[in-house]
Amino acid sequence: MYRGAPVEGATVTLHPAAQDGKPAFATTDSQGHAVLGTFEVSGGALPGDYAVTVVKAEQASGGATPADEGGSMPAVGPDGTPPPAQPSGPRHLLPAKYADVNTSGLRKTINATGNNDFTLELVD
């Protein structure tokens, strides 16, 4: 959930705390639900403690034009044409802190038995 609404198309990753642990992954559906998988899609996560990341990004369009050595933007290239746009990295559609295991602040424990359903509430 982000801003009170389900997030579709986000990648949820459980990063194991144990050195020998295995990560689990899933992509959220239109209702914001995801079924994690470790060895196969929707196969579940292994019991243990995890740090969690949530990422939803889109490739930025257009990009920036390159700066000349003086730091200003050149009006035209050497052949008189505008310089090509440089592709920029992906644009995060959720707060970027959730994309990094060190800053997400999200932690979950998966138990060997019982219900392991949980809701992630992302805030700005």
Please give a handful of descriptors for the protein shown.
124 residues, mainly beta, four-stranded antiparallel sheet, two-stranded antiparallel sheet, elongated
Write up what this structure looks like.
This protein is an all-beta fold and 124 residues long. It has one domain (1-60, 87-114). It has strands spanning 11-16, 24-27, 48-55, 57-59, 90-92, 106-110. Strand 1 and strand 2 (24-27) form a beta hairpin. The protein is elongated and about 70 Å long.
- Biggest sheet statistics: 4 strands, antiparallel
Number of E-state strands:
6
Q: Tell me, rounded to a whole number, the average pLDDT.
A: 85
What is the approximate shape?
elongated
What is the H-and-E element order?
A: EEEEEE
Q: What is the alpha-carbon Rg in Å?
A: 20 Å
The total count of helices amounts to 0
Number of domains: 1
The share of residues in helices is under 10%
Unreliable spans: 62-74
Span of the ends, CA to CA: 12 Å
Strands of the widest sheet, in order across it, are 2-1-3-6
Quaternary organization:
single chain
Strand content: 15-25%
By secondary-structure content and strand pairing, the structural class works out as mainly beta
How would you sum up this structure in a few lines?
The protein is mostly beta strands and about 120 residues long. The protein has strands spanning about 10-15, 25, 50-55, 55-60, 90, 105-110. It has one domain.
